[in-house]
Design brief:
alpha+beta; GMP Synthetase, Chain A, domain 3; Thrombin, subunit H; 8 helices; 20% helix; disulfide bond; Peptidase S1A alpha-lytic prodomain domain-containing protein; zymogen
Length: 501
């Protein structure tokens, strides 16, 4: 076993690999001594960490801390990520984990060896003496992992909890969980059972162009919402009848056809279960996701693109609206004819022009090797028939914020940002800026006026009420400014009004 002094020397040696050179302090006779391990790492992090102002604002709001505490936290987090591996390596089997605590995230290092407490303190971290090493706890957790097949369904999770120096087993039925733990053969001092209401499940997005299954395979058209419903998606009517159950692209239970019409029409809508979240996007080329911001029908001759689960993303032009087409099953009226190709399995998939939803794939002829003609059922008729709204922006932008020098429209999904009039901002003389934000009802949208200082954007004024709408003014010096629009919660279209000095 290494002695305390040897471990301390190891910390100092390792530090030269992860931190800047030590800052010298004058001592007796002009000698100098290096700063502590953690302090050096903090100094390096402070010199290199340049947090985004938006992140500082979000930390203040969501963690309930000050701006200074948020900046200190980010520095300390960066420093801790550098020094934790050093502590782990040098303490070895006496290391019991490390974590951050308090509003500024100060580093705590745990050990099961009392002789190492002074070493940890000398390196600049807080020290905690505990019973079990991290290796012992990890082994206990791995033992439970090996028994997962026999674990009761009432246990949603288990994990190593560093602060309590134990393996925590969460349970909706604590008696049942305790029986599982008692039967595991583990030392009782290693494991704690805690009551929990957690009932975790995998969550998946509904996206236009994705596959779904119902005995065969079709494609999602557009995600939709409906009052009093989980929401879902629109697709082709020939893909399923009312009551038909669906599975998603990953074969996980997804939803049920709630409306379907074919022939005569070729449209349907599927209500999804709580494992699935309708998202206002369509799969584009490669991994691109295209936003859906409305459903304004494009004119004949316009470009139009289709997304489907068989052939992916292809484009063409609109040839005619209000077409009647006859399939073996009967005649479909009111569809749009296009030059976009499609193949079996693409049925129900998205037709989009720009960011405007156009329709869902009905049928056609040809293929994506030699080309072809396809027909889509216009999406607005489906929305009207079933009382649906496109997820992500099926309604026009709000009409508020009138009377401002400039207005800008856009659409966001929850936790997204947009910058107006662009990321580069605008040049303004000294004087008063007037900002108005009109967001979608039922959401919380915020606006931040930012000024360019060197290469950094700094927030100088903001409207952050728990409402969709904001309005404020700012009297500033000449410079370059921009407005950051943030969807704190909810999704949809917004209007920003801006009068610059």
């Amino acid at each position: 076993m290494l002695r305390s002094s040897a471990v301390t020397a190891g910390f100092a040696l390792a530090l030269t690999l992860v931190a800047t050179p030590a800052i010298a302090h004058g001592g007796p006779g002009g000698s100098s001594a290096p700063e502590s391990l953690y302090a050096q790492a903090k100094a390096q992090a402070a010199a290199t960490t340049q947090p985004d102002p938006g992140m500082i604002e979000a930390l203040q709001r969501d963690l309930g801390i000050s701006g200074a505490e948020a900046r200190a936290r980010l520095v300390n987090e960066a420093a801790a990520s550098k020094v934790e591996p050093v502590f782990s390596r040098q303490l070895g089997d006496r290391f019991a984990g490390a974590w951050l605590t308090g509003p500024t995230a100060e580093l705590v290092v745990a050990t099961n060896d009392s002789t190492q407490v002074a070493t940890i303190l000398k390196a600049g971290a807080q020290a905690k003496l505990v019973k079990h090493s991290l290796a012992t706890l990890d082994a206990a957790k791995a033992h439970l992992d090996g028994l997962s097949g026999s674990a009761p369904k009432s246990i949603p999770s288990w994990y190593v909890d560093l602060q309590s120096n134990s393996v925590v087993v969460l349970a909706r039925d604590t008696a049942e969980a305790q029986g599982f733990v008692d039967g595991s053969g583990l030392d009782a001092s290693l494991v704690r059972v805690e009551a929990s209401t957690e009932d975790p499940r995998a969550l998946y997005d509904v996206r236009g162009g994705d596959a779904y299954y119902m005995g065969g395979r079709c494609s999602v058209g557009f995600s939709v919402t409906r009052t009093g419903s989980q929401g879902g998606f629109v697709t082709a009517g020939h893909c399923g009848r009312v009551g038909t159950a669906t599975q998603g692209y990953n074969r996980v239970a997804q939803g049920t056809f709630r409306g379907s019409s074919f022939p005569g029409n070729d449209y349907a809508w599927v209500e999804v279960n709580s494992n699935w979240t309708p998202v206002g996007v369509v799969k584009g080329s490669g991994s691109t996701l295209l936003p859906v911001n409305g459903s304004t029908q494009r004119a004949v001759g316009s470009s139009i693109c289709r997304s489907g689960s068989t052939t992916g993303y292809h484009c063409g032009t609109i040839q005619q609206h209000n077409t009647s087409v006859t399939y073996p099953e009967g005649t479909i009226t009111g569809v749009t004819r296009t030059t976009v190709c499609a193949e079996p399995g693409d049925s129900g998939g998205s037709y989009i022009s720009g960011d405007q939803a156009q329709g869902v794939t009905s049928g056609g002829s040809g293929n994506c090797t030699s080309g072809g003609t396809t027909y889509h059922q216009p999406v607005n008729e489906i929305l009207s028939t079933y009382g649906l709204t496109l997820a992500g922006g099926g309604t026009p932008p709000p009409t508020g914020c009138s009377g401002y020098q400039n207005t800008y429209n856009g659409s966001l999904t929850s936790n997204q940002n947009a910058y107006q009039p662009g990321t580069g901002g605008y040049t303004a003389a000294a004087g008063t800026h007037r900002i108005c934000l009109d967001g979608p009802n039922g959401t919380d949208y915020d606006a931040y006026l930012q000024r360019l200082s060197g290469s950094t954007w700094t927030t100088v004024a903001q409207g952050t009420s728990p409402n969709p709408d904001e309005a404020f003014t700012y009297n500033g010096t000449a410079g370059t400014y921009r407005v950051r629009v943030h969807a704190y919660s909810g999704s949809g279209s917004y209007t920003l009004g801006l009068t610059r000095p």
